[in-house]
Design goal:
Blueprint: H1 9-15, H2 32-35, H3 52-67, H4 71-83, H5 88-97, H6 100-106, H7 113-121, E1 125-127, E2 130-131, E3 144-147, H8 155-163, E4 172-175, E5 180-183, H9 198-205
Antiparallel strand pairs: 1-2, 1-3, 3-5, 4-5
Helix pairs in contact: 3-9, 4-5, 6-7
Length: 207
């Protein structure tokens, strides 16, 4: 199955939590979840008994949609996390946060992860001085991500400098003047603004 291309606000309503898929709109009263805080569809407001599997599935879907992943990608990242030392749930989030598209979003150089994926795919960013066009590229401590010189004069990045809200990601040092960010530490679970119980995801994949 390909990537979901329908109205993204339906995904937030389905999961019952803001996934910040529409950028700045998610922070305003125009957010669909503020207006209709129930699942989409004709049975969205009906009460349903949720099974243990259903709770595990919903937590997994939250993470998938938050980061814009396919099922195969999600499964692959869980397997990677499970083979690492430490807590599997924490390892999984470290992997997801290290994706290039997520780092671009965390730097404030895109309004959403979807926009970050598009900007990376179109070749607007360099990773350690080399052109990077694959959103799923893994970054690590010490990596430098920057807007390439030809793109810095575009209206998109000019307005970004003017409206940038400052560095809110402690594990990335941002040089706004040079449109550059340097990863200085690994992300931690506390840095992730998603209310999810990752142990349920671990239980789901461990069956």
């Amino acid at each position: 199955m390909g990537r979901y291309t329908g109205p993204v606000c339906r995904l937030c309503r389905r999961e019952g939590v803001k996934l910040f898929l529409k950028g700045d709109r998610c922070y305003t009263d125009r957010c669909a979840l503020n207006k209709r805080n129930f699942a989409p569809g004709q049975h969205g407001q009906s009460r349903k008994k949720v099974t243990e599997y259903g709770m595990q599935l919903r937590e997994k879907q939250k993470v998938r949609r938050f980061y814009g992943l396919s099922e195969s990608q999600m499964s692959k990242y869980f397997m990677m996390a499970d083979q690492m030392k430490g807590v599997t749930g924490d390892n999984m989030f470290k992997i997801l946060e290290s994706r290039l598209d997520n780092v671009v979003y965390r730097m404030g150089f895109a309004a959403s992860r979807a926009e970050a994926r598009q900007l990376v795919t179109h070749g607007h960013f360099l990773l350690n001085g080399n052109k990077a066009t694959i959103p799923s590229l893994m970054t690590t401590v010490g990596d430098v991500i920057e807007v390439k010189e030809k793109s810095r004069g575009s209206e998109k990045f000019k307005s970004l400098v003017e409206n940038h809200s400052g560095n809110t990601t402690p594990w990335i040092n941002i040089d706004l003047e040079k449109l550059r960010g340097t990863i200085v530490a690994e992300s931690t679970r506390e840095d992730i603004d998603l209310p999810v119980e990752e142990h349920l995801i671990v239980e789901l994949y461990s069956k």
